[in-house]
Structures are given as C-alpha cells and as structure tokens.
Amino acid sequence: MVADMPPTYMDRYRFAFSDFPAPIFCAWFLIQGLTGGGPLPILFGLAGVVFTLFKRHKSYDLYEDALIVRYLLPTRVAAIYLRDIEGVQVVRQPMVGAVVLIHRKNEGSSRLGFKDGGSRLIIRPRDSQEMLLRLNAMLQTQAIS
Questions:
Q1: Tens digit of each residue's pLDDT (9 = 90 or more) over 10-57
Q2: Is the four-CA dihedral 9, 106, 103, 76 of positive or negative sign?
Q3: Is 107 exposed, middle or buried (0-12, 13-18, 19+ CB in 10 A)?
Q4: Contact 127, 11 (CB under 8 A)
Q5: 122: Cβ–Cβ under 8 A, 6 or more apart, which residues?
Q6: Cα dist. 114→26, 84, 117, 118, 119 in Å?
Q7: Mean per-residue pLDDT, 100-123
Q8: Which of 14, 32, 58, 89 is the most exposed place for a label (fewest CB within 10 A)?
Q9: Domain range spanning residue 32?
Q10: To the nearest 5 percent, what fractions of the chain are helix, strand and coil?
Q11: Residue 132, φ and ψ in degrees, nearest 5
Q12: Rounded CA gap, 28 and 34, in Å?
C-alpha cells in the first residue's frame, strides 16, 4: 500500500520559461472582463486558471511500488504503478530542458487489432538525472522480485 510507507525519493516540479504565458494571459483576460469587457473574457480567464490547476504538476513522490504525481489542485493525485511502467528516459525539450519520459505498458490492442506503444507521461523534476536513476533502480528491483 502506497500510503503506509514514506517515499524513497521526493522531487518538485521544475519551473521553466514556457510556464509564464498561461498565467499572464489568464490574468489579462480576467482584468479585461472585470473592467467592462463582458462575461466572455472572464470565462476564458477562469477556464485557463482551472486548466492550469488540473494539468500542472506540483511534486513527485517515488515509493517502492508507485510514482505519485501531485497537481496544483490539492485533491488531484495520479498514481503510476511501477508494474505498469515499461521504460524511462531523459529527453530534452525546447525552452524547457531535460524532462523524464515515462513509457507505460500497453493494456490491450487498438481498435484495428494492432498493438500500440502504450501511453506516455512527461514529468519535469528539478533533478531529471536523479529521478531517472531512482526510477530505473526501482524498476530493476521490481523486475527481480
């Protein structure tokens, strides 16, 4: 059970230059709507704030059997179990830097009957290399047992 044990490794989300435009545009839309622009800019601004709260990671906790991704919205948490991870690698993204790409195992086949590669998750921890080393070590111990 994930909640019963302390995490073996913790890391926080790495802020990048590409994180600036969304909050700035949301604030601009809200200000435009509140100063007489009507309800549509307010709606766009609030939709941007909600989208940011639901999609932006806050922290990453690595346990013996799962990687827990916490989002800005306090009630949103994603658990990626190590048994469902196929592979992990560090890739570079423009304007962001090094990120960790997690390949999940495929649960089934596509509609046409072909196996697809499974889903992927990109996380941006502050120390990508350390997260990669820890995840690979946990995956190897998971494979042995």
A1: 999 988 877 888 888 898 999 999 998 889 999 999 999 888 888 889
A2: negative
A3: exposed
A4: yes
A5: 93, 99, 100, 101, 102
A6: 41, 19, 10, 11, 15
A7: 71
A8: 89
A9: 17-55
A10: 40, 30, 30
A11: -65, -45
A12: 10
Q: Are residues 41 and 89 in the same domain?
A: no
Mean pLDDT of 101-130: 76
Enter the tokens of residue 104: 């999940």
The CA-atom distances, in angstroms, between 56 and each of 2, 16, 34, 53 are 22, 12, 26, 6
My answer on whether 73 and 109 are in the same domain is yes
pTM of the entire predicted model: 0.79
pLDDT tens readout for residues 63-110: 989 999 999 888 889 999 999 998 899 999 888 889 999 998 876 544
Residue type, 90: V
Sheet holding 9-12, edge to edge: 9-12, 57-62, 66-71, 77-81
**Mean pLDDT score, 108-129:** 72
The number of folded domains in the chain is 2
| Secondary structure (DSSP) of 48-101 | HHHHHHHH-EEEEEE-SSEEEEEESSTT-EEEEEGGGEEEEEEEEETTTEEEEE
67 and 51 inside one domain = no
